[in-house]
Amino acid sequence: MIFAHDIPDGGKLYFGKKAKIKREIEHIASEVFENEEYEEIVTPFFSYHQLEALDEKELIRCSDKENRTLALRGDSSIDVIRLVIKRLKSEAKKWFYIQPVFRAPSTEVYQIGAEWLEGDLKQVLNTNLNILKRVNKNYPLVISHIKIPEIVSKISGVSIDDIKKQRIYKFNDWMKKLLVFDKNSKPEEFPQEIRIYLEEMLEFADFDAVFEPLYVANLRYYDGVFYRIINKNDIIAKGGSYTVEGVKSVGFSIYTDNLLKDVNG
Amino acid sequence: MTIALPKGRIAEDVLAIFKKIFDEDFEFENRKLILKKAGFTFLNVRNWDVATYVQKQAADIGVVGYDVITELNSDVLELMDLGLGKCRVSVAGIKGDESYKNKTQIKVASKLQNIAKNYFNKKGIPVEVIKLNGSIELAPLVGLSDVIVDIVETGNTLKENGLEEKEVIMHSSARLIANKNSFSVKKKQILEIIEKIGQVHGT
């Protein structure tokens, strides 16, 4: 039975003070983006290309008039880059969006995001941190690399599932050392196959961050260093580098709903 | 640091390990569910709820059987095998009766629905899993199921009811689990605990 007050699981309802704070956060973010010369984009809710970003079981799907599969946007990055390159043919490289994404069966996720074609991840991370600073928030930052767990699995024989679950009792000595990898660690003390990627992570040593080279991410299109900004049990933001339509780009998403839980105005 | 422990034997064993590490008593008084000592907060929760407390970060780490986290498909880190509470999850049935192997669809009674379903699915055997909450051994004796999937420690309960272990699905023991974000921000403390447990208890 559906009651008159019911909303679907995963639906978001903001009103009064919370709705006002949400609007203010989005306004602050847009100011930061404009100061840093980002262009705004609002993309269609429906998309043909979501499978590049997400597993089909996460998508809310339907059909167009020719019975081709569409999905409600489950991720903004792929569409933003594709539309900028293929449809707008714009010269602008820095774009931001403030719009929700949708996941099956009925989850809504409000996001504030940025994509920078041929951009620099450190600068994009600074933009992300600037927005959080403007709302007086400073959260733990975790830096990882999408390629390291896969290579470690290959050279150590420890399965990717064991690495994902951090079954330390199956790790060899250098894998255990990777658990405590920090900005003072030396990549040359680790197997040659992962040194270059550890060095890429260490380029972020000037940030106050936790380094987690063995973190296995469920992020389909990131291809290098990526980061998470966390608070309690939530992800506040995620960012990383990726290649779409042959263009190496960087970007991030702030999970507005998670940030709102922690901002009281 | 908050630690969720399952009620009963495993909690006692883990608290005994902490007693060895810190050289002081760790005991839940009477019916209290929270114990605060030496900078730790211990929560005394039901076995099946430990992973939920940890996944939702009501606890940073916890101790729970591998069978339970496998059944629940819990999104937690499984940092350490404590080797406590060793058991098997097995297919069992009436002694000497192998007829279930020739059926086009097997009826399986179990509390561990997902483990049972995944096991037979992987073998390509159609299966109907009947969820029971206890006394699983009764099901094949009264024709409710062809076989059962259940936890086996010594096998005595099976024997006493005219059943036998037919296939071992997995071996289980207690694991030290951690919340993902807690592990990121409290890594040093958590790894220290693991090291100390390893020193007094082994891995």
| Alpha-carbon distance between the two ends of chain A | 37 Å
CATH topology of the largest domain in chain B: D-Maltodextrin-Binding Protein, domain 2
Q: Indicate the radius of gyration of chain A in whole angstroms.
A: 20 Å
* Weakly predicted, low-confidence segments of chain B: none
Neighbour order of strands in the largest sheet of chain A:
1-5-6-11-10-9-7-8
Poorly predicted runs of 5 or more residues of chain A: none
- Any idea what the CATH architecture of the largest domain in chain B is? 3-Layer(aba) Sandwich
Helix content of chain A: 25-40%
Question: Which percent range describes the beta-strand content of chain A?
Answer: 25-35%
Characterize the biggest β-sheet of chain A. Answer: 8 strands, mixed
Note down, in words, how this protein is organized.
The complex is a heterodimer of chains A (265) and B (203). Chain A is an alpha+beta fold. Chain A has helices spanning 16-35, 77-88, 121-134, 148-156, 160-164, 173-179, 192-202, 256-261; strands at residues 39-40, 46-47, 61-63, 69-72, 94-103, 107-117, 141-145, 209-211, 222-231, 234-244, 247-255. In chain A, the strands form 2 sheets. Chain A has an 8-stranded mixed beta sheet with strand order 1-5-6-11-10-9-7-8. In chain A, helix 1 (16-35) runs antiparallel to helix 3 (121-134) and helix 4 runs antiparallel to helix 7. The radius of gyration of chain A is 20 Å and the shape is globular. In chain A, 36% of the residues are buried. Chain B is built from 8 helices and 11 strands. Chain B is elongated and about 55 Å long. By secondary structure, chain B is α/β, with parallel strands linked by helices. The chains are: A alpha+beta (265), B alpha/beta (203). Chain A binds chain B through residues 140, 142, 165-169, 179-180, 210, 212, 228, 230, 232-234, and chain B through 56-57, 76-81, 178-179, 181, 183-185, 187-188, 191, 194, 203.
